[in-house]
Amino acid sequence: MGYGGVHLHRVQPDLRQTGSRRPFCLGNPGGWSSSSPVHGHRGLSGCLSERDGQTPVAKAAAVCGASAVQRHADPALPVSPSLGCKTGESRLQGRRGGAWCRGPQLPAPQALLARLVVVAAAPHASSDRAVAALQLLQALQGRIHRALRAVWVTEIPLLLQYLAGRKESSLGSAEWEHRVLKFLRVSLEPIEDKAWTVGLSQELSQQLGSSAPGSWEKLFLYKVLGTVLAACQNLWHVQGQVLSFLQATDPVAEPQAMISVVSHAAESHFHLVLDTLTMYSDNFVRLYFGQTCTGSKAQQQQRMEIAQPFCAALMRTYSAVALCAPKEQLLSRVDKEILGDILRLSRAKQRGMQLKLAVVQSITEVCCAIQAVGNCGSFKLSLKQEAMRTLLDWMKREPWDSVLYGVFQALEKLSKLRPRLSREENRNLLAVCCHAVVSYPSEEQMKKGNRIARAALNTQLLHRRGMQDLGRLIETLLETQGSSACFDDMVHVLKGQLTSAMEWKRERALRVCTHLLDVCKDRHEFRRGRPCQQIGSLVGLLGCLTIDCLVTSRQRAGLCLSYLLEMQDNTVPVVLEAHEIRCLCEELDSPDPNTLVKTSIKIAKAVCKCIPPAQAVGFLRAIVDTLLHVTTTAQEASIVWKWVFVFLKECGKDILAEVPEFLTTLYTYMQRGTNRFFVPSAVSLLAICHREAVVSCLLQAGHLMDSNMIELWRSLGRSTFGIQILRCLAEKLNRAGNNCPGTGSSASEQHSRETALETLAITRAISEVVFVMSSTEQLRQLLPHILPSLLRWASETVGEERLPSAMSSWRQLFLEGRVLEQKPCRTFLLALKSVLEKCMEQKWMQLLMHRAVWARLEDPLAHPEGVSLLTSVLLQAGLISPSLVQNLLPWLDSSSVKLRVAAAAFFDEIPESYRTRRPSERGRN
C-alpha cells in the first residue's frame, strides 16, 4: 500500500547505486563478499587477529597479497623480508579453505576505509582487532586519500592510546562507537572532493545491502552513512539519500535505519534534513489521517496497524534529529516543527505499545536536546502545556499501563523547561501522577486476579520504578516551581490519598509523603524559619495514621512527623525531639494496644506544640476527614481524639481567633460521625480557655436546638465550670435587646427580630445547662441574676404568637418555624421553672402548680397576678434576696409598660424591709 511516495507496506530497502563497485570480499582481493559479514569475525577481522606481532604492512599483505601492498603502501613504510613466503603460504592455505581467489588487488579507497572503520568499531572480546585495523588505516593513509595524512597523524594515536588505557577486556560500548564515528567525521572534514565523499556514501549503501538484517554491522553502517552524509558537501545527494531512506525503510524490521541516517546527517545539514523530514511527514500525515477514516472498521483497523510503526519511526527520527542538531540552530525550529510534528503524529485513535513508547521517548529526547543547549535565554517552549496534556490524558485513561512509568521521565524533563506551570496545572500534574502510582493494583489484588508469579513480580518492579520516578519528578518541581508552592500543592494532592479507605493506598501515599518531607526538610526555604502552611493539616493526617492497621504505615507516619518538626523549627532542642520521635517509631510496631496508645500520645505532645495557632482548624479538619473516610474501631478513634485533646491542652489558649471555625468543624462532624461522643469533651477543653467565645459561637449555631446542640450544652453544664457557663448565659440574656435603634425604623424591626432569636437561643441553652447541674447552692447564688432576665422576657413576650414582623429571608423563615414551635413566653417560663426546681424544695414547686402560677404567667390578662403569686412563693421559700430586689428595681422606670406592670405586681408582695429606694428617688436626693 503506497501513499504517493509514502510507503506503508513492509519492504526491504534497495539502496544499491548504479555505477558503484560490487561488494568486496574480505578474503578476496578482487572484491567484498556478501556472504562474509564482519559480524561473524571472518575475513579481514579474522586475519588481523591471527597475525599479531606483524607489521601493519605485513598484516595488509596477509589480507591483500604482497604485490598489492607494495603498490598501495606508503614507500616510507618498511616491508617485512619474509613477506613473500608469508604471502605464498597464505595463498596456499587460502586455496585449501576457499578464501583466496584470482590475484592480489586492494579495493577502492572508499571501500577500504568503510570496511576498516567497521572492523575497528566492532565489539570483540579484546581490543587487538581494533588496534590492528587502526594501524592498517595509518599505514594506508596516503593511498586512501592524501588529505587524511595530516589528520590521522594525531587522531589515530589518540584512539590507540584510548584502547591501551582501557581496563575492560572487551569492546562493545557506545562510547567507543561514538569515538570511532567522531574520528570518521574529523577525517572527512578536510576532504574537499565532493565526488569522493559521494562515492563513500554509495559504497556504504552497497555494504548495507549485503549486511544481515538486524546485525550489529548493519546498525553501525547506518550511523556511518549518516556521518558521511553530514560531511558531504553535495546537498542534492544528501537530500536524495535522506529521502531515499525515508521512503524505502521498513519501520517494522529496521526502524533504526531511518533514525540513524537522518539524525547523523542533521549534524551538519540540520535545516536541509529537517525540511526533507517535514515534507515527508506532512505527506504521510495527510494521507494517513485521510485513509484511516474511510472504509470499513476492519479496513481502518488494518491501516492503523500498518501506519503506527511509521508514526513511531517518524517521531523517533524527529527527536533524534533534535539531539544531533547544532545547538545554535535547534531552538529556532524545535518548538513548532519538531515537537509540533511529534504531537501531531501521536494523535492516533488507537495507540499500540510501539507508538506509546515512541511518544514518551521522543518527548523526553526533545527536552534533553533543549536542555543540552545550555543558556536558552528567553526561549519558551510554547507546546509544553500541550505535550503535558497529551501525557496526562493518557495516564488518566490508562493509569495502569506498564509504559506509563516512562512518562514520569518525560514529565520531569518537560517541567524543567519554561514557561513555568500555573498552580492549577502543577496541582493537576501531581494529582494524576500520584493517582497512577498510589492506585496501582496491590499484591493482594494481583493474587485475586490469578496472575502468574512472573507477571506479579514484573508489576511490583514497575511500581517500584514508578515510585522512584515520581520522587525525581517531585524534586524537579520543587526546584522549578518554587519549594513552598509545590510543597503546598503536593500536600493538597496527598490528603485525598492519605485518607483512603484502602490501607495499601495509604501506605503508598505515606511512602511518597516521606520522600517529600525528607527532601524539603533540608531545603533553605524551610530551614530559614519560613512556617510551613500545611503543617497543621499534615500533623492531623499523620497523627491519625500512627494507629493505622499496617505497621509500615504507622512507622512511616511517625517518621514524617519527625521531618515536619525539623521543617518547622531547626533549633537544637527541636532537632533532638525529632530524633526522639524517630526512636519512638520503633515502638509503633507493638501489637500491645496500651503501648501503641502511650507511644502515639508521646509523639502528639512533641508535635502538637509546633502547630501554629492559625492552622488549628486545618489540624482538626484533617483528623475529622480521616475519621469520616477511614474505618476505625472505637479504640482507634479514642486514640485519634487524644491528639485533639493534647493539642487543646498544649495550645488551646492561643487559638482565640480560630474558635468559631474550630467549633463549626466539631459540630459538623458531630452531625455526620459515628464516634460523636468525643466532641463534647473537645468543646469542654476549648471552653476552659475561651469560655465567652465558645458560648457566643454555640449560641450563633444554636438557633436549631437539635440533639447534638443539646448534648454540647449539657456537657458544658456537667463540667466543673458549668456554673460559670450559666453565669455567662445569664449576662448575655440580660444584655440582649440593649442599644436598640429608634422605634419605627426598618433597623429597629430587624433588631427586634434578631433579639427575639437570640433570647430564645440563650434561654434554651440555660434550660439544658440547668437540667444537668448538680450544685444547688451555686445555682441559688446565681438566681438573682437569672430570674430577672427570664421573667423580663416572659413579661415582654406574653401574648405574642410570632415574631414582631415577617422574616427577611427564607433561612430566617425556616428558623422561625423551628424556634417558635411554641409561644415565646412559654420558652422563658419553662427555663424559669427548671431553674426553680433546682433551687427550692419540691413542696414549693407543688404549691406553684396548685396555684396555677405558670398558667397565669402565660395569660396576658392574668400575668400580673401570676407574678404576685410567684413572688409570694419565693418569699416563703426564702429565695428573695436584696440583690434580686435590686436587679428588679429598674423595671419600675422602664419604658416598657409590661415591665412596669410586672414590677408593680412583684413589689406589691415584697415587705418594706426588702425594699430600697427607687433610682428616681436617689436621683432627687
UniProtKB/TrEMBL annotation:
Coiled coil: none annotated. It comes from Strigops habroptila (Kakapo). The gene is LOC115605326. One of its GO terms (cellular component) is cytoplasm. Residues 104-479 form the MROH2B-like HEAT-repeats domain. Residues 504-719 form the Maestro-like HEAT-repeats domain. InterPro entries: ARM-type_fold, HEAT_MROH2B-like, Maestro-like_HEAT, Maestro_heat-like_prot. This is Uncharacterized protein. Pfam families: HEAT_Maestro, HEAT_Maestro_2.
